[in-house]
Amino acid sequence: YKLVKSTSEVWYPCIYVALPRANATEENPTSYHWGYKENDTWIQGIRIYNVEEDAKYHSDIDENSTSEFPYVQRGVCEVGVSPGEYLDGTDDVELWMNLNAKSDEFGAQCCEGKFKQALEEQNKTLNDVREIDAGCD
Question: Are 87 and 57 in contact (CB under 8 A)?
Answer without folding.
Answer: no
